[in-house]
Amino acid sequence: MSANDHAQGAARQSMKRRDFLQRAGWGSVGVTGLIIGVSRAPALAHPPSQYPSWIPPSDKPPKRGGILTRASAWDPPVLDPRLTNSVGLSQIATLVYNRLLRYPFSDEAKNDTDLTLKGDLAESWEGSADFKTWTFKLRQGVKWHNVPPLKGRELVADDIKYCYEAYAQEGVQTFTFQEIDGMETPDKYTIRIHLKTPNTMFPQNVAEAVTTIFPREVLEEDGDLKSRMIGTGPFILKEHERKVKVVLTRNPDYFDKGYPYIDQYRILSTPDAATRLAAFRTGQSDHLVLQSLADVETLRKTNPKAVIQEAVTGLAPFGLNLRADKPPFNDVRVRRAMSMAIDRQKQVNTLFEGHAMLGWGVPYFYWQDELPSASDLGPYWQYRPAEAKKLMAEAGYAKGFETTLFYYEYFPQMTSQIQLVQQDLKRNLNIELKITKNDYTTYFGRYAEGKWDGTAWGFQTGYAVSRDERTYHYMHSKSPKNYFRVNDPVIDELATKLRQTPDHAEQQALTKKLVEREHDQVLRMWMPYDAGFFIWQPHARNIGQLALRSHGGYGASTLARLWLDK
Amino acid sequence: MTIYVVRRLLLAIPVLLLASLVVFGLMRIMPGDALTALMAESGNVSPRELQKLRKDLRLDLPYHEQYLHWVWQMVTFNPGRSVFTGDAIATSLKKSIPVTVELAAMAIVFGVALAIPLGVLSATRQDKLSDYIGRLIAISGLSFPDFWLGTLIITFAAIWFSWIPPLGYTSLWESPWRNLQQFLLPAAVLGLRLSAATMRMTRSTLLEVLREDYVRTAWAKGLSERLIIYKHALKNALIPVVTIVGGQLGTLLAGTVIVETIFALPGMGRLTVEAILFRDYPVVQTNVMLVAATLVTLNLLVDLTYAWLDPRIRYQ
After folding, report:
1. Which residues of chain B neighbour A241 with C-beta distances below 8 Å?
2. Burial grade of B237 (CB within 10 A; 0-12, 13-18, 19 or more)
3. Distances (CA, A) of A248 to A356, B1, B39, B83
4. How far is the alpha carbon of A6 from chain B, nearest alpha carbon, in Å?
5. B174 interface with A at CB cutoff 8 Å
6. pTM of the shown model
7. Disulfide-capable partner of B265 in A224, A231, B146, B260 (CB 3.0 to 4.6 Å)?
8. In Å, what is the CA distance from A83 to each residue of A210, A252, B57, B264?
């Protein structure tokens, strides 16, 4: 039996169990009931489903026109990209604004992990020999939207300079842009960026969805960007009614001639998951994201022609965050023991119905070509309770200890997942985990401020695609984005060296070393996660979902290439 | 009567002041603030920048100054702006109040239209099949939570009829038909729940009234059942029902968040709950005060309605 068969078998088994629970109305019984009788599946790092992980672009001639509608869970908190990195804003901002560079669109990518950089506002870019200076040549004739006060003015290099200076000055992008030592604009279409330290990966950072170029006129007139969004992108923001809808219309003067295909994109604020599902079923929404394999199967009963793509989870966004600078977690033996005492496969089999990854933090395609197998994750990611006990005894904690954990429930399975961890740690190591569930703001305030002891259910932010963000920004001891408070000189050295390494193969090798070091020292204790399934109505074309870039969020800019076959 | 109304209005002042202190205090006790929520997941905002933003939004002022500033804003009917979104609170309320008022009004109409006939039927056919059915409906309405019923309705409407209310919100004046489609199901969900208490109250008070001497006299006079029940008994039985319906209306103004969320309606409930989650102090405070003022007014109106329903009641 192949690994694939195993995965499908596990999925079928959990389907039956789920069906039974649903019919009996026992859903709320939760974890306890699910655990009983679970047969242990082989340690697959990310078992595939029967759905493709990539949907190639359509080879039919595209049709112009039509309205794309999406029931969206998110509302943008504010329209000002300096103040938030929220996915709610990015679902709009990436279509109204542009960036200097971008990642491939669905119709350009070879597969879901194609990260070849493309020009967006820039048409070419070049680094100096020491990678401290980057020169970007802009496209000529790019116009701001034809609405006051911009009225179709041409975008020039000074606009980029102004925008990057504003990002460096205040807000959520400061860390990225304070890296800039100075900028020059030798002519209207050239911007030269001098960095404080060499960075071979700087172009990736200006391709991130959150580095959008906004107009100086609006910031100067309004003092902020909270109420108006005027860009150079494929769509013009026509209407934004908070908690109701966002309406984007086709920009007829878009520099990428012929695009976008659709006339209008309507985002309907729909906070309830059941309503989003019902909206898709009845055709009120063209796109849907489901997290559970069983839910996908249920949907197919009413919408058999829906096009479904499995999201191969590139990384785990959540894991156990330990106060590693204080006892007992400053002892690597304790961290290793805890990691080995947690049965991640059980979580995959029960909570995620057999379809989830075991957990790693740096996107796998930055350190190896294939999805990691369980053994690729190293010994401390395996469930070995006997060895864990031994290690704890060696560290002087044979009788266990008490600690705390606080969390915010980002998705429904999270509470059960944390309870499973609590159960494993108690049973195998006699660690008493006292759990507190917080609301979002309380959790975030405590977590980001870092004034907590014990443990937290930690997260890493979702927008970043680049290797630099996922390594240096998220793991270097001096980075404010290092939420897991990794403070390891080897990691610092590797992450810094990575920035000075231009060769792709060397970058892969260095990243692998960095990941191995992370896993060996259990610096971030990742937990299983499933990115779910992306579902489209059958008339949507060019819909392939790229890794780490969701069409409904940070990767929305690809909708400029989507067309409707109806 | 006038003196009574004036006295009640004066009494409202300390009530509202107390409410303002409670809501102001509770919001400050809760950990985190709007900036923390706004910056959530960005991970790269320095404490210095946060401090600057707090100052810009007056969140760094001592609590008593913040409180006095807010009370002044309330007194001058200028609630200011949301610290989270920057939107004028008055504008947000102007958009969300009509949604909630319409939803609440339709729910009340639906609830009363269902509850009164059922209550009368149950009372007049006590311990008969129709009474049992009526009581079953009432118990169901009390037992089914809004989130369950709403989700069930929207899911099965999609599966069985390939139809759900059009997503979003269209005002009554823009398109009455579309608006009706959007509000009918959520109003029915809320109305069913409300009808349960109203129906049970109608039944029990009507049963009580039907045993009164004057009703017996009416029967003895040979009046028709319809006349006795609807003209003589029901009017008197409705007094406690009015109290319940008045209270329900107040609750609905702030308590429809679940139904608003399921049916994607941008009402007061969603506005308030989101503001609480994001620690948007001015929005929460304004909304709570608005609800408090509405409740005080509604209670007064309910009391005045007693006098209309029962001429024996006099206010000094």
Report:
1. 95, 169, 266
2. buried
3. 35, 57, 26, 26
4. 32
5. no
6. 0.87
7. B260
8. 10, 29, 14, 26
- Say which residue the tokens 């149950």 belong to: B122
User: Burial, B226: exposed, middle or buried (Cβ in 10 Å; 0-12, 13-18, 19+)?
Assistant: exposed
Q: How many CB atoms lie within 10 A of CB B158?
A: 22
Q: How many other CB atoms are found less than 10 A from the CB of residue A190?
A: 16
pLDDT tens per residue, range B165-211: 999 899 999 999 999 999 999 999 999 989 999 999 999 999 999 99
Q: What are the pLDDT digits (tens) for A217-233?
A: 999 999 989 889 999 99
Query: Phi, psi at residue B222, to the nearest 5°?
Result: 85, 20
The nearest alpha carbon in chain B to A460 belongs to B41
B30, B43, B270 member nearest A461 (Cβ)? B43
B87 contact A CB<8A: yes
SS (H, E, C) A458-498: EECCCCCCCHHHHHHHHHCCCCCCCCCCCCCHHHHHHHHHH
Phi-psi region of A371 (alpha: psi -120 to 50; beta: other; left: phi over 0): beta
pLDDT of residue A43: 46
Signed CA dihedral, A393, A396, A401, A405: sign only: negative
Contacting A residues, span 232-291, partner chain B, CB-CB under 8 Å: 241-245, 268-272, 274-275, 277-279, 281-285
Predicted pLDDT at B40: 58
B2 touches chain A (CB under 8 A): no
Compute how many other C-beta atoms are within 10 angstroms of the C-beta atom of residue A331.
17
* A42 in B contact zone (CB under 8 Å): no
Residue A549 per-residue DSSP state = B
Tokens describing residue A170: 């205040």
Size of interface A-B (CB pairs under 8 A): 152
- The type of residue at B258 is I
Name chain B contacts of A472, Cβ cutoff 8 Å.
none
CA distances from A290 to A411, B66, B158 (A): 12, 44, 17
A-facing residues of B in 279-298 (CB < 8 A) are 279
Phi-psi region of A68 (alpha: psi -120 to 50; beta: other; left: phi over 0): beta
Sign of the CA dihedral with A18 first, then A23, A26, and A32 last = negative
List B residues 106-125 in contact with A (Cβ-Cβ < 8 A). Answer: none
